[in-house]
Amino acid sequence: MRLHDEPVMEIIDRSQRSPHRDTLFNKRKVYGYNILATMSESTKYVDREIPTISLGDFDARIDDITTQLVMAAEEVGFFSITDHGLSVEEINHMFETSEAFFSLPDEVKATVPWSPRNVGWEKNSQIRPSTGKPDRKESYQLQFGQNMKGMWIKDEYLPKFREDSLAFMNRVQKISEKLMICFARGLGFPDDYFIKFHDITRPISQTTMRLLHYFALPEGNNTGVYYRAGAHCDWGFLTLLFQREGQGGLEICPGREVVTEFALGDAWTKVDLKAGDIICNIGDLLMSWSDDRFKSTFHRVKTPSEPGDYFGDRYSIAFFNQPCADALIQGPKKKYAMVTGEQFTANAMKRNFSALQEKQRALAAMAA
Ligand SMILES: O=C(O)CCC(=O)C(=O)O
Ligand SMILES: [Fe+2]
């Protein structure tokens, strides 16, 4: 078993909680035993608007787009974008490429095994501190730089996989860079401020595209047995998510006020999508870099267990914008001490690890 990269925060900083938000979201600590108490209950849902923002006519509309993005980042931390320039055909082609990879025999996929540089293939091994159990899925992490040496599936197994994946990744990077310009403006930084720190042409780039395949589950009540993707926040800067229509399950739970806080509400909101839209979410890095103005929101892929849930094989693609190791991270208000990209990641891993240990101790105590 290995520990992946999503950070979780063990400290609830009560001094910084907004009383208004507290009544809105009814927060509670999630990674203790509380989450277990919810397993047999049916999910509580609430409607929340997840803004849809058009990037069309970007140069002429940049001020308007920036306003909309900043508002979405401040309020929900999730938004979908349209008119981003990627066609439905291009997205579908990447999904077909991904499905072709996942349908290879495990022995072949194991020729590119996951490594802690966050590249490679894993199966049923990512343990989230929110569940203490591995997600039931497989994923293949791809990067642009030197970490991918020897980690691309060979052409003899899947011709053109590397070429097609890199072409898609470069297209998604360009969209990310548009969003980075807007978020830099929103925080009063120069336009290219975030782009420079996420330069994918540098060999030390850590930006990662993750292809995901969640296995089909038996229809019925799977709760407590399987997890698709346990509740977590992404630790990077910004995530761009591609989903397939009809393969639902992504849910969000806003309410986190400070990046050092480790709590979430008890009501989830399903994320619906239209073909071709990209769902985006703020990661902990941008939350920290914005002095907590932009929210990194808890989300999960729900284990299908109730009527109306999607039980079949589910494919998704996540593009994580990660800083280069030498990026210097500090918000305009200097709320948090300056850290490098490398330190930020190390701190996130450390918090993740101690939260996971806490969760596993709680699970063991319940079993005893
Ligand atoms: O598969 C999805 O829809 C979400 C995946 C996700 O949140 C992640 O990998 O961080
Ligand atoms: Fe995520």
UniProtKB/TrEMBL annotation:
Signal peptide: none annotated. InterPro entries: DIOX_N, IPNS-like_FE2OG_OXY, IPNS-like_sf, Iron_ascorbate_oxido_reductase, Oxoglu/Fe-dep_dioxygenase_dom. Pfam families: 2OG-FeII_Oxy, DIOX_N. It comes from the Eukaryota. PROSITE patterns: FE2OG_OXY. Keywords: Dioxygenase, Iron, Metal-binding, Oxidoreductase. Residues 205-323 form the Fe2OG dioxygenase domain. The keyword Metal-binding applies. GO terms for biological process: small molecule biosynthetic process. GO terms for molecular function: dioxygenase activity; metal ion binding. PANTHER family: 2-OXOGLUTARATE (2OG) AND FE(II)-DEPENDENT OXYGENASE SUPERFAMILY PROTEIN-RELATED. Belongs to the iron/ascorbate-dependent oxidoreductase family. This is Leucoanthocyanidin dioxygenase.
